[in-house]
Amino acid sequence: MPWLYLAIAIISEVVATSALKAADGFTQWLPSTLVIVGYGSAFYFLSLTLRTIPVGVAYAVWSGTGVALISLIGWVVYRQSLNLAALGGIALIVAGVVVLNIFTKTTL
Fold first, then answer.
1. b/e for 55-94, b at 16 or more Cβ within 10 A?
2. 86 vs 47: CA distance, rounded Å
3. How far apart (Å, rounded) are the C-alpha atoms in residues 42 and 55?
4. What is the CA 25 to chain-centroid distance, rounded?
């Protein structure tokens, strides 16, 4: 279950962060509500994850996956460009998450 909780935390955080731009300084009620509920849900499920997965590993997976997904959403939804350095950095983050999930013995 901890990996499911972590996946829910990541999705919640990505939804909240994506809605943050549309919330326009919390002047738009629907995106603002998504931000508040999304971040609340993200931290709740992350806290459940931390019962069994070490905090460093959980946070690395959570933040790394979130960065990659938010970058993708920014590119697709908000038409924000990513240069070669940004893409390389994101690739390194994804590689780090993969290494943590496949090779570390500290996760479960």
1. eebbebbbebbbbbbbbebbeeeeeeeeeeeeeeebeebe
2. 30
3. 15
4. 21
Query: What residues does each domain of the chain span?
Result: 2-103
The DSSP line for the chain is -HHHHHHHHHHHHHHHHHHHHHHTTTTSHHHHHHHHHHHHHHHHHHHHHTTTS-HHHHHHHHHHHHHHHHHHHHHHTS-----HHHHHHHHHHHHHHHHHHHH-SS--
Please identify which residue in the block is written with the tokens 């609340």: 40
- Average pLDDT on 37-47 reads 97
As a whole number of angstroms, the distance between CA 12 and CA 50 comes to 16
Q: Mean pLDDT score of the chain, rounded to an integer?
A: 89
